[in-house]
Amino acid sequence: MRRGILRSARPVFHFPYALTLLMLLALSGCSLFRPAPPPEPEAPVATEPEPAASEPEAASAPEVASEPEAESTAKPAPKKPRPAPVRRRRPPPPPPAPASAPPAPPPAPIVQVRTLERGTFRTLLDSEVQKTDGKVVGRAVDMVTGPGGKPVDVVVNLQGFMGVGDRKANFPWSGVRVNTQPKTPAITLALPANQLQVPDRPKAGAPQPGNPEASATRLPMLDADVERANGAKVGRVVDVLLDGSAAPQAVVLDVSGTLEKRHTIAADWSALRFVTKNNTLEAQLEMSDQQVDASPPYAPDQPVHAVTPAAPPPAAPAAQAAPAASPVASAANAHGAK
């Protein structure tokens, strides 16, 4: 028994396994005793080239010494509360501008003007007078009117020989024809032969025919004074304008004063009134000094502006009666009376 137990206690090694174990131990022992590898050389450090010397910088201004900071241990000042933002109210829009009153109408003209174009009339004074056969017998020097301003006669200065023996003669206005074309005889006497007889030359000292004086029924227009109804003088007639039907259209008045430069205007024939005053026929024109000054001047070579005094503006209506008192006012008055 004992021999059997000892045999069982002996280790049992197999040869192939033992050889493998020895080889592993030998390899591990070689790695333990191998010398350490040499240290690796350090990589060279690249050195940057030194920069070239630059110009010396300008000395900066010395810094202002700042106030010493408060100690960190000091307590911070309490923050002030921010005021609430104030909202500004928008201003109310401006009230609409009151409607401007309409401009006042221009003042009414104090004279009315009627334009007479050249070529539609001829002047009377110094116009050539011819017969129907074209023979010139003289020049017109005056026109005689009757009541109402109707022409009655034309006064012609008959030509003599070389200016000797000139004399004046009256011819009925019914035979007067007016030619409005310029540079032609203005007046043609279309009268029968018995009315074209030239009067004989007056004897020395005898009154000159053809110079009629004003009477109650006849008024020579040239050099006649035109006055207002109150007797104030307006001007003196220096010419008469005739249309193609031999109807007077206007009179040329000299309205200049004694010391003023000559000023002439054309007054419309319809504005004249012919009245008998002191047994003499007169021509009147109700024209104030302001209206005379407002009248355009007369020019022989321009269109004529014949003026007529403008009618006065209508009188303003009478003020209306005061409105009746209100019932409250009437009651108050009645209470006061009590």
UniProtKB/TrEMBL annotation:
Biased region (Basic residues) positions are 77-91
State the residue spans of region: Disordered.
Answer: 35-110, 196-219, 287-338
Record-linked Pfam families:
PRC (PF05239)
Domain PRC-barrel span(s) in chain numbering: 122-178
Its domain of life reads: Bacteria
Q: Where is the composition biased (Low complexity)?
A: 43-76, 317-338
Composition-biased stretches (Pro residues): 92-109
Q: What is this protein called?
A: PRC-barrel domain protein
Native source species = Paraburkholderia silvatlantica
Q: What is the lineage of its organism?
A: Bacteria, Pseudomonadati, Pseudomonadota, Betaproteobacteria, Burkholderiales
